[in-house]
Design brief:
- InterPro entries: Bact_Cytoskel_RodZ.
- The chain crosses the membrane at residues 118-141.
- This is DUF4115 domain-containing protein.
- This protein is α+β, with helices and mostly antiparallel strands and 279 residues long.
- The protein has helices at residues 13-23, 28-35, 39-46, 56-69, 74-89, 99-107, 117-138, 143-172, 274-278, and strands spanning 177-185, 188-195, 199-204, 209-215, 221-225, 230-235, 239-244, 250-253, 256-257, 267-272.
- It has three domains: 13-107, lambda repressor-like DNA-binding domains (434 Repressor (Amino-terminal Domain)), CATH 1.10.260.40; 118-169; 197-278.
- It has nine helices and ten strands.
- The longest helix has 30 residues, at 143-172.
């Protein structure tokens, strides 16, 4: 490659770059996008304005990128740049520019690729998730188990509240009685008032199973039930049910569903009213 034309006309390095770029059909915008060199620096390079260009290391990198894009020899371009720059500077040595000039040169350097805001948000979310996972692992805390326990406690509290409200309503109203009349003579009638049971438990067996039942201090009885069978028991004082955890029926107390406590045992004991006090 030579900087002299057929008519022995000498052209500068900047003019050579400009002519080669035009011959290959590129404009400054295309070169800037391809090499990440700002248009200000590209213009200074083509106009041989060495004073405007940034520090030596950056400038040599710009000439190398520009030469490679134009399929020129980067080594030869750097040699020509060094020769012309020395001739232009003469005996003057390059000193460190003042802070304001240095800041301007840094601003004219190659543009850095921009980081999309979505990428920053994604990295932030990933960091938060990893931090949360590390905290859970370090303290041996399972958030799923915690939420499950809180939800179960809320359901039990809701059942207890409904039972208390129902009891308050029944206490505020007049007591319900079943009236039976026994006639001892045509002129005498004896009225017996029977109070309604305090606890009413209904069991729906989705599968065949068995349980042990004791009502109001009676001896426990073991009962077997078929699949799909529905049974109701009533008690005035207390009731105790011992159930097999493999075939648990759906229980309701006074029309309110009963939830079973978690256990690893084969049997669960439900004691009423003690069960209500634990809720």
């Amino acid at each position: 490659m030579s900087l002299e034309t057929s008519d022995t006309e000498y052209i500068s390095l900047g003019e050579l770059l400009r002519r080669t770029r035009i011959e290959q059909g590129f404009d400054l915008d295309q070169v800037s996008v391809e090499t990440k060199i700002t248009i200000t620096n590209l213009t200074a390079m083509e106009e041989d304005d060495f004073e405007t260009l940034p520090a030596e290391a950056f400038t040599r990198g710009f000439y190398t990128l520009y030469a490679r894009m134009l399929t020129l020899d980067p080594e030869e371009i750097l040699q020509i740049y060094t020769k012309e720059k020395n001739a232009h500077s003469g005996k003057k040595t390059r000193t460190t520019p003042p802070p304001n000039k240095l800041a301007q040169q840094v601003g004219n350097m190659a543009e850095r690729p921009s980081v999309m805001p979505v990428s920053c948000a994604g990295l932030t979310i990933l960091f938060i998730l990893l931090s949360g996972a590390f905290v859970c692992w370090y303290f041996s805390w399972n958030p799923a188990t915690y939420l499950s326990e809180r939800l179960r406690a809320f359901q039990k509290q809701d059942v207890s509240t409904q039972l208390k409200e129902q009891q308050e309503v029944s206490d505020s109203e007049s007591p319900s009685f079943t009236v039976a009349e026994i006639k001892t003579s045509p002129d005498e009638t004896t009225t017996i008032q029977e109070a309604s049971p305090k606890y009413r438990v209904e069991a729906v067996f989705t599968n065949a199973g068995s349980l042990t039942l004791a009502i109001d201090g009676e001896s426990p009885r073991k009962l077997n039930f078929a699949q799909g069978e529905t049974v109701t028991w009533e008690a005035n004082e207390k009731m105790e049910l011992v159930l097999n955890t493999k075939n648990l029926p759906k229980l309701t107390l006074n029309g309110i569903p009963i939830s079973y406590p978690e256990t690893d045992k084969q049997q669960i004991t439900i004691q009423i009213p003690e069960y209500l006090l634990d809720q």
